[in-house]
Structure formats: C-alpha cells, structure tokens
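The freezer alarm interrupted the setup, so I double-checked each line after restarting. Inputs confirmed:
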Amino acid sequence: MNIHEYQGKSILQAHGVPVQEGFVAETAGQAKMIAEELQKKYGTEVFVIKAQIHAGGRGKGGGVKIARSPDEAAEVASRILGMTLVTPQTGPAGKVVHKVLVARDVYYKGESDIREFYMSILLDRKKSAYVVVYSTEGGMDIEEVAASKPDAIFTEVVDSSCCLHEFQMRTIASNLGLHGKAYREMTDFIRGLWESFVSSDASLIEINPLLKTSDDKVLAVDCKVSLDDNALYRHPEFEAMRDLNEEDPTEVEAGASNLNYVKLDGDVGCMVNGAGLAMATMDLIQLSGGRPANFLDVGGGANAKTVEAGFRIILKDPNVRAILINIFGGIVRCDRVAEGIIEAYKSIGNINVPVIVRLQGTNAIEAKELIDRSGLKVIAASTFSDAAGKVRAALN
Ligand code: GDP
Ligand code: MN
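Predicted 3D structure, all chains:
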C-alpha cells in the first residue's frame, strides 16, 4: 500500500526523524490557517504548497509551489486543489489533487550552503538483503543521475543477521561529505529512518531531497513510503492512511470480494484459479494472438459467488472482446464453478462477448453437463491448445 507524503512524514516523526514541518489541507481556507500557524510558531515567511498524490515528479508537473504570505498560500492552494496533475509518474491521464501539504520553506538564507541528498531503504532481491541507497546528487533528477552518473550513487547493504550497524550510518554520513553538527544529525537521521522502516514493515522509504540546511540541520523534504500489504494486519493504525481515490476502483471492488485482480491493458479477460495457472493462461492468451485484459485469480476456494463477482469485474472493462475461464478443479469443484458461471450469466444479462470455458479436474463432467443444459452461448474447450485456438477464433 502506498501512502501520501504527509502520512509518510508522520511515520518518520514518530521515530524522531526531522522533517520539513507542515500540515495537510483540503481547502484554501485551511491552507491559510496552517500558514498563519507556521508563521506564529516559527516566524515562517515563505511557504511551500505541495500536491498530495501517489506519484513523484510533482515538482516537474507544477504540483509544488512557493507562497510568500498566508493569503498567497490560500491562493496557490486553491489553484492546486482540484487540478489534474500530470507528472512523469502519473501517466498522461494524471491524477486529481484532493489535498495539499502546506509546509515551511526550508531552503532559507540563500542556496549556497544547502545540499540536497538522496536516500532510500528498500529490498534488494539479488542480494537478498535490505539496502540503503544514497547519493550526494539528490533533488528532482535522481533517475537521470542513476543513468548518467552511476558512480554518484552508493549502496550500504544491511546485515540480515542483525540490522543496519552504527558504523554503517557513520560511513554514509562521511561519504555524503558531512562534518561536525551535520554529520551527527545525519547519523541520527539514518538511525531513525531505519527504525521507521523496520517498525512500520515498509517495503520502501525514499527521501528525495534529503536536505542539509544552511544552518546544518538535516531533514526530510520529501518522503515516499510503501507499506508491505502482507504485514498490514499487524498495523491497524495504518488502516486510516489508505486513500481509495488513489487506487483503481475495480481493484478495490475485487479486493472486497477476496479476488486477486490486477487490471492490464489487453482485450481478453481471464478468470483462473491459482496464480501459477493464471500466469500460464496469460501466456496462452498472448500465444493465441490476444493480449490479457487482466490477471484474475479467484483462489482455491472459488464458489458461485466469487465467480460471479469476477465476471462482473471483468465485464466492467470496455476493452474486453472475449473471456477465457480456465479452472482446474482440485479443491474447488468444477460443477460449483459452472453454477457460478450460469448464475452470473443470468443475473448480469446480455453478455455479448464470447466466453470460452475450460473446466478440468474434479467434477468436470458434471460441470460440462450443467453448462450444456443451461443453453448458454458458452464455448467449451478441453485442452490448453484447444482453448487458445478458440480464443483466436473468437477474436477474429
Ligand atoms: P517531487 O517532485 O514529487 O519529488 O516533490 P518534492 O517534494 O521532492 O519537491 C520537488 C522540489 O521542490 C524539490 O526537489 C525542491 O527542489 C523543491 N522544494 C521542496 N520543498 C521546498 C522548499 O521548502 N523550498 C524551496 N525553495 N523549494 C522546495
Ligand atoms: Mn521528491
């Protein structure tokens, strides 16, 4: 699960990690009040208004703007709120902004002593370990740095038998060229970041820019956090951070029916039980000349209800020109799945794309009888290659 910058920063703060102070606003009026508060509390004169969407590159897309008074903060916020922000990471359709973060400008006192670093903690699957990736070249173009100056990006591998060691935190601070107060602040920052990562069961924390201010403070200006879905049950406190506006509505609906659904951009919908069979089926569709419109695993305990829910979800996709149902009856009985298909057909009404069904395994014969007797226009297939041929025929 991805969360917003302001939510990620609240996790960091709970672990004593310094961040650029700010609060989230949903209206221009709130933005003004927050700016006034920051002014009272810190004497802030310059504010930064940042669109909160689940995508980076907001600076480039016009989603990060400076304001020089609470009134201007309100004015800038009113322009950003409700806008469709297009960044290099949102895709051409962009994302609608529902919230802005109003924060104090931390690039104060000129730009001369300021340094922008990059730092992230993530899993390196090749090394089978967590790594801290960091660079002196932080800011908006880290992808460009990675491509053109890979030497400017450093990695510290976390000791899987223990943790990120103190000496490693010092190595990082020293490789970033820091001394004195900034060096100490950086080691504290890294310790807090590591603690935030572990205790929240995050799969990624990325800070870019990680700023050293002109008065040698070290703080997170930006913050991207991805939480491990499989560990969310251990964190009821994160439940409220989920923002359904940022998720594909069909995937949300599928999740509610316990279906494992991922939307893809092809034209053949598929419904399968088991992730391995689902992947093989997607290959099969590709070989037959179509392209999968989705990944859908109805799971081992599929019944008439889940099949119907799956059907409805697939049919919501206007690109779907054919549907392939490929079920292996192991624990799930094929006749139950067949009942689900028949029920779905009846209750959804005019399904006008060809449906190719391959039911094999437990009670496959009973399933075929049920479908034949139902009089539905379903194309039965027996083998994988038979199914592929029938998908091809249906598409032509
Ligand atoms: P991203 O573009 O989505 O990664 O959003 P960031 O939070 O990283 O902000 C983009 C850029 O805005 C940063 O790289 C900074 O250069 C700039 N920025 C962010 N906060 C401030 C601030 O307080 N003052 C100034 N002057 N610039 C800021
Ligand atoms: Mn950033």
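Quick read of the result. Residues 180-199 form the longest helix (20 residues).
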